[in-house]
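Q: Structure for this?
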Amino acid sequence: MNGNIYHNRKAQWAIYLAAFAALALLPIFFDSPFTLNLLARYCVFALLAVSVSLVWGYAGILSLGQAIAFGLAAYGMAMTMQMQYQDPVSDPIPSFMLTNELKTLPLVWAPFWSTPIGLILTFGVPTVFFIGFGILMFQARVAGVFVAIMTLAMTAAWYSMAYDMQPFTAGFNGISPPLPFQIFGTEVDPYSAGAYWVCVAFLAVLTLGAKFLMQTKFGLIVQAIRDDAERARFLGYNVAYYQVVVFALSGFLAASAGFCWVLIVQYVSPTSLEIVFSISIVIWAAVGGRTSLLGAIIGAFLVNGMQSFVGDELQQVWMLILGAIFIGVVLFLPRGLAGFFELVLGLFSGRREPQKSDWSTRRTSAVTKESAE
Amino acid sequence: MSLLELKDVTKVYNDYVAVENFNFSVTDGELRCLLGPNGAGKTTCIDLITGRQRLTSGAILFAGDDICRLPEQSIARLGIGRKFQVPAIFKELTVEDNLEVAFSRKKDPFANMMTLHRSYGQNRSDEIVELVGLKDRLSSQAGLLSHGETQWLEIGMVLIQDPRLLLMDEPTAGMTEQETMKTSEIFNSLKGSHTLVVVEHDMSFVREIADIITVMHMGTMLAEGTLEEIGNDPRVKEVYLGSEGLG
């Protein structure tokens, strides 16, 4: 374990920085707007996978609710962009509301007249929701599979809300703001290199931030709580507090992904709050290796890249393929591709200390005892 | 003055009485053994002291203050360290990181976000690693340790917190004879400088370390005294030691 370069922090930072530099340079090689937009989408998915890696891989909280933060932020961003298009005097109400017989702008939409307030809500609402939901779960010491069930149920609840409240959310059709996002007097073209770089910047800054945090003592304690919450509690740590903080951070990461998503697709619908989507994120992280943030990014790129290139005829059965990949990873690479890397690099470092198991130690001592007698 | 005092402590689960009117006190610097057959209420007592279970009635005083309403982490921060019956360590972390988590004096998540340096290597940690004999294993993953080493690691984690009171729930469970011997050496070296309550089954271990022994039976105190007094007590012989006595 000593000699494995996988565990060398300097090497890790070098690889992370190199990876993000490479991502940032991609527009030089791919100048097709379609390709750039596709790559930007992968970056958004990668950010979601990082949020799962943080909360599941490091903190041991299997959250199937990352789509909640993603979806809420996506709706917030879409509402902000929609209101940028509306005119307070001549055209104050989005057209889908008129077709749903709303005569005035609903109260929840009113703050989005202001772009800064809209952006604050886009990031703030999901994060605050995760804090509240986290307090509810972790104070009650909900753990393990029950966290998965609760977050799953909550995702389903938000999905039906977005779906059913048609006058406010345009229901199944979703909201498609007519114009791209405007900020500081410029328009962010979803198919431009600029939009792609915004996504890469969010991915890079938040991933490096999360990586740094996991190397502080906070990160160490979070991992300790993952291994044995009870032990940590009796060492004097407020376990629920730590879990709420890391859950809220992962919510903020997923919310940032939701923001970037609408920036580059100019559209939101209840599908961003879907259970299937939430579970897919967990699979991306599992494929890449949930205990590695960079692994999760690679997992998201690989799986989504595969889905883009398998061809139309296989899209129908994509969920089957994804399921098969997941089962394969769980069976053969429980720590994902990153875990495989760790193993291979460990073989090269050649300093694998022989580990005596409990049994072998006891057996040898039993044998010595016998022979002594 | 007694550091820990249990007054008329009673714990009832539904209609099963686990501990009944139990009185118990430990003075500073003492090593007390808590003995008793299975189901006597020993671990329940430890659970009550550390806040894992709540009292039905009675009071628990630590250094004169009532602690029985505090949450677990607050009790731990007051200076009560606990070793679990089934060794509890952080399996995915290295031995060094396990000790680091136990060593940290800062418990607030935001304060710990600002801390990059490791406190390992300072103050008491070297001594303790030496004491529990894990010096060569510091960079090993804790989940790969042998059973005895796992027990020692947890003892080390409790010690490194530098608590005023150490509660050890069956520290030699599952250990080989040699490992038990080494553990008794560790405990003997802690005598005087630390206050310990040791729950134990293994009589040879108790014989090595005990000053005063408290024997529990069916949730109540059966007897209390030195090894010799306990050994000669006919009630203890009957319920716990059988006809063999303390040998």
